[in-house]
Amino acid sequence: MEALESVNPISGDTIGYVNTTPLQSTTLMYEQARRAFQTWQNTSIKERLQYIRKLRHIIVEQLEDGIDIIHQDTGKPKVESITADLYTILDAIAYLEKHAEKILKTRKTKTPIAFIGKKSYTSYHPRGVVLVISPWNYPFQLAMNPVINAVIAGNCAILKPSEVTPLVGQWMESLFEQAGFPDHVIQVAHGGKEIGAKLVSEKPDYIFFTGSDRTGKIILQEAAKNLIPTSLELGGKDPMIVFKDAHIERAVNGALWGSLTNYGQVCMSVERIYVEKKIYEPFVVSLKRGLQNLKTELSDDADLGSMTFEQQLQVVQNHVSSAISKGATLYSGSHPKLNQNQGMKIEPIILTGVNHKMEVIQEETFGPVINVIPFENEEEAIKLANNSRYGLSSSVWSKDINKAKRVAGKLAAGSVLVNDVLVAIANPHLPFGGIKDSGIGRYHAAVGVTNFCHQKSIMVDSGFKKAEVNWYPYAGKLPPFIDFVNSWYGKRKKPIKMFSSYIQLLRKSK
Predict the structure, then answer these.
(1) Are 334 and 343 in contact (CB under 8 A)?
(2) Mean of pLDDT values over 441-470
(3) Which of 79, 89, 347, 448 could make an S-S bridge to 333, C-beta 3.0–4.6 Å?
(4) Which residues carry out catalysis (predicted)?
(5) Active site residue 233
(6) CB contact at 8 A, 229 and 264
(7) pTM, rounded to two decimals
(8) 82: which DSSP letter?
(9) CA atoms of 49 and 181, how far apart (whole Å)
(10) Reduced to 3 DSSP states, what percent helix, strand and coil does the chain have, rounded to the nearest 5?
C-alpha cells in the first residue's frame, strides 16, 4: 500500500506517513455508507448531537496535540492553528448543539386563502451519502465543518482530506473513531486527485467541495452528468477599499493580517487593496513599516509561518515575475525566485504600480503578496473592486458607516466586512459562500445544515369534503372564480364578496 508523506514546510523534514486508501475500495465504502444510512437517518437529532458533543470534548482534550499537528503539517503559526482551524470548529459545534433541532424541525407554513381548511408544512430529510473533498490551507476547519453539518442532518459522510496535509486527515479520522460514531457513518479516504475522482464517479447523493475554481468546475461537470447537487466553495481575489476617512492605523493592521494570515493562503485573503489617493503614500509607507515589524523567527508566538504547498509557491513566483516585467514595483520584500534556499518560507512582498491587466490582480495568487492600487473616488473604487471574475469576500474601511454600508451593498461578493477582514467565515450564524467563479451555494448558519437535506412540502386536507372547488366539473364556475379573484386581489379588497363567491364555488362542487 502506498503512503502519503507529510513534510514540514518550514524545516523540510519528513514528519510522518499516512497509508492511502486503495482505489478499488471506494465502491465498498459507498455500500457501507448506504447501509449505515438506513439506520442513521432514523436516529433523533438529540442522539446525533450526543456524538458531536463528545467530538467537541475530545478536540478540547487533545487541543495542544491538534495545534502541533496542524502547525507541523501546514507551516502556519500555532496561534493561527487554534484560532482559525480549531476554535472555529468548536464554535460551529456549539452552534449546532444549540440550534440544530430547531433548524431541522418540521414547520408549519402559511396556506393561501383559496385553500381554506388545509394545512401546510415543510420538512427536512437527509440526502443520503455526502462526499466532502477538503483543501490543505485550513485542513481541519474546511473538512470538519461540512462533515458535522452533513451527519447532524442525518446523512452519512465520506471525507477525502487533502493529500498535502495527511497528518491532519489522519487525526480527524481518529477523532471520529474516538467520538464513537456508528460504523461507516463517517469514513475517511486518504489519497490524491485519483481517489477524489473515483469517489465522485461513485455517484454520491451530494458533493461538498472546497478548493480551486479549476477543480471545482471539473467536479461540477461530473456531477451534472448524474444531476448530483453540489456546493462549491472556491477561490477569491478579495478587494479591500480604504477611504481617506478610515482609521488608517487600523486599516494598515487589517491589511497586513488580511493579506498574510496563513501566509496569504486563504480563499478570502486580501489580494487587492484600493486606497484613496489622498492617503495612498502614507498608507503604503505604514504598510511597509508594519510588515517589517512582524515576527518571523520560529517560535510559539511567531506572526508569520510559511507556504504549505510547493506548487502554490510556483504560482506566487510566476505572478510576481509577470507583474514586475509589466511595470510593477517591488516596494517591499525580495523576489521569491531569489530565495530558493529558504524553502517554503519566502519573504512577504508589497507590490505597487500594479493594474488590472496583470495576473497578480486578475488571478488568485494564494501567497504572501500585497498589491496596493490608488483610486480617485467612491465610484471608481466600486468599479475596480468588482472588476474580477471572483466574488467571495471584500471589505470597506471608513469612519462614515453609512457610506461604508452603501458601498458594501454595491460590491459583488458573497460577504462584505466593514472595518474588518476575513472573519465573516468564522461567524457560525452567517451564511458563507461566493458568487461568480468563487462558487455555488452557502454553508454555516441554518443553510449550512439544510443544504444537506432535501425539503419536502406537505399539504394536509381533512378529507371530509366530496370534492374541491377547482376539480371537475367546471360548469358554472368561471363567473364566481372571476368575482373571487377581483374581490381579493383587485385594487380594493372586498372580503364579503370574495367569501360569497367562494361559497358559490363550494355549492357547485357538491
Answers:
(1) no
(2) 95
(3) 347
(4) 233
(5) yes
(6) no
(7) 0.96
(8) I
(9) 11
(10) 45, 20, 35
Q: Which amino acid is at 406?
A: R
Given the residues 233, 276, 363, 364, select the one marked as catalytic: 233
Q: 435-436 and 390-391: which strand pairing?
A: antiparallel
CATH topology of domain 30-234+445-456: Aldehyde Dehydrogenase; Chain A, domain 1 (3.40.605)
Nearest to residue 372, comparing CAs of 315, 291, 267?
Answer: 291
Nearest-angstrom CA–CA distance, 483 and 502: 9
Place of cell 502506498: 2
Mind giving me the DSSP string for 196-236? HHHHHHT--SEEEEES-HHHHHHHHHHHHTTT--EEEE---
Q: How far apart are CA 395 and CA 270, in angstroms?
A: 9
Residue in the block written with cell 475522482: 197
Q: Tell me how far apart the alpha carbons of residues 440 and 192 are, in angstroms, rounded to a whole number.
A: 23
Fold entry, domain 238-430: Aldehyde Dehydrogenase; Chain A, domain 2 (3.40.309)
b/e string for 13-42 if b means 16 or more Cβ within 10 A? eeebebebbeeeebeebbebbeebbeebee
pLDDT digits (tens, 9 = 90+) for 197-238: 999 999 999 999 999 999 999 999 999 999 999 999 999 999
Give the model's pLDDT for residue 176: 98
In the chain, domain spans: 30-234+445-456, 238-430, 467-509
Dihedral Cα 354, 357, 361, 366, nearest 10 deg: -120
Residues 6+ apart with CB under 8 A from 19: 1, 2, 3, 4, 190
- DSSP 3-state assignment of 286? helix
